[in-house]
């Protein structure tokens, strides 16, 4: 996850605390949150506001569960809650995280496999193997994945499976 020492951490806190599906901020308001000027590229290039897994700024809104759309001429950015919903299977109180759901959670958080592995305390190869369906997370890791998903605002529904594993 994003560290409290990051310049863009206050933006993450603001978005998480808003509870709104859409938050519109002027560049000036973003600068007030981060305690300094945005880089020149933020005012000139849409790419700075992209929703990719690189860049500390994108991590702030993506970890809060938002996607950014920028209006460079109007100098404002609109953050919208990511509304995708995924299905996971549940056996008893355990969620069975399949490769597709794990990859979707990772993408929702805006992380590459290495960064996601760091969040979970596993190797990058483990993430790759989960996503490919070679292995599945342990019960303890599945519980931690559910916690990480909740913290990231990742929406999923679960269906119960009466079969034993």
Number of individual domains: 2
Q: Which fold name is given in CATH as the topology of the largest domain? A: 434 Repressor (Amino-terminal Domain)
CATH class bucket of the largest domain: Mainly Alpha
Please report the distance between the alpha carbons of the first and last residues: 32 Å
Q: Tell me, what's the shape?
A: elongated
Q: Oligomeric state of the chains?
A: single chain
CATH architecture of the largest domain: Orthogonal Bundle
Please count the beta strands (DSSP E, at least 2 residues each). Answer: 6
Order of strands across the main sheet: 1-3-2
Could you tell me the mean pLDDT?
A: 86
- Count of DSSP H/I helices: 8
Strand content: 15-25%
Largest sheet: 3 strands, antiparallel
Task: Quickly give the structural class.
Answer: alpha+beta
Radius of gyration: 17 Å
Helix and strand sequence: HEHHHEEEEHHHHE
